[in-house]
Design brief:
The chain is mostly helical. It has helices at about 5-10, 15-25, 40-55, 60-75, 105-115, 120, 135-150, 155-170, and strands at about 30-35, 35-40, 85-90, 100-105. The protein has a two-stranded antiparallel sheet. Strands 3-4 form a two-stranded antiparallel sheet.
């Protein structure tokens, strides 16, 4: 099965723009036909791993592309659900200490398989400008939802939507812990 960018982003549960950024930065390399990017299940897994690493490590696009290329090579033609974990080791050029990252490949592949029906719910929209009157349609949809919910006003619905969007922008917490201290004489 192959999916367009918007469908792939729905399966991954990320905004289409974030997935497009990964493609433009060569972190993942989908096939391009008729000026559209096409994603298969292997590319979806690579993108899922890239988002996983980006969320947990905050890696740069260069490192993400290295990690996903290494992952792609090591998986080969095997079924990703057979491998429980995949370990990536990275050693900085000047240091002899390597860093190992364990990625739960099988569980990520199962999550993607469960999300495949999301592609049917998000058909790809045509290219170009938004159609005329789309803002009025959204306002009417809010008003209809407020009427159906009864005691909820349109302003409360808009406020909860705004709250949800700001909550998605929260960055992960990163802490540093010192293992020991040096004593000076």
């Amino acid at each position: 099965m192959e999916f367009k960018l918007k469908q792939a982003s729905a399966i991954l549960g990320v905004p289409a723009k974030d997935l497009q950024n990964l493609v433009q930065l060569n972190v993942i390399r989908p096939a391009r036909r008729n000026n559209l990017y096409w994603f298969n299940s292997r590319l979806l897994l690579e993108a899922k791993v890239a988002f996983y690493l980006k969320a947990s490590l905050g890696s740069s696009s260069e490192l993400l592309s290295l990690f996903t290329a290494t992952l792609s090579r090591s998986l080969g033609n095997d079924d990703p659900k057979r491998r429980r974990f995949m370990s990536l080791r990275s050693r900085p050029a000047r240091s002899s200490q390597s860093i190992e990252i364990r990625i739960p490949v099988a569980s990520l592949a199962r999550e993607l398989e469960q999300q495949l029906p999301q592609a049917q719910a998000h058909p790809d929209s045509p290219r170009g400008r938004r159609r005329a009157g789309w803002q009025n349609e959204i306002s009417r949809a809010f008003e209809d939802a407020a009427v159906q919910m009864g005691e909820v006003s349109v302003q409360e619905l808009r406020g909860s939507l705004r709250e949800y969007r700001t909550g998605r922008k929260v960055r992960p917490e990163v802490t540093a812990v010192a293992n020991s201290t040096l004593k000076t004489a």
